[in-house]
Amino acid sequence: MKATVGDKLIVEGAHSGDPRKVGFIVELHHQDGSPPYVVRWEDDQHESLVFPGPDARVVSKTPE
């Protein structure tokens, strides 16, 4: 998994009925774009350090 600042991180719910979490990558810890990432979550705007699992995917930001 590789990402850049501004990409969207989507984490699917672990169990049936669990909500999907969506956030934006605001900081990288490795220059090659590999995890972990600092993510600002859409729902409550808090930031956390994320080590994405198999239930996560990165959606690249669209070029301006």
Features:
globular; five-stranded antiparallel β-sheet; single chain
Summarize the main sheet. 5 strands, antiparallel
Class inferred from helices and paired strands: mainly beta
- Strand element count: 5
Count of alpha and pi helical runs: 0
The strand line-up of the biggest sheet is 4-3-2-1-5
Mean pLDDT: 93
Which consecutive residue ranges, at least 5 long each, have pLDDT under 50? none
Describe the protein.
The protein is an all-beta fold and 64 residues long. It is 0% helix and 39% strand. The chain is built from no helices and five strands. The chain has strands at residues 8-11, 21-28, 37-41, 47-50, 56-59. The protein has a five-stranded antiparallel beta sheet with strand order 4-3-2-1-5, with no helix packed on it. A hairpin with an 8-residue loop joins strand 2 and strand 3 (37-41).
Helix and strand layout, with pairings?
Layout lengths: L7 E4 L9 E8 L8 E5 L5 E4 L5 E4 L5
Antiparallel strand pairs: 1-2, 1-5, 2-3, 3-4
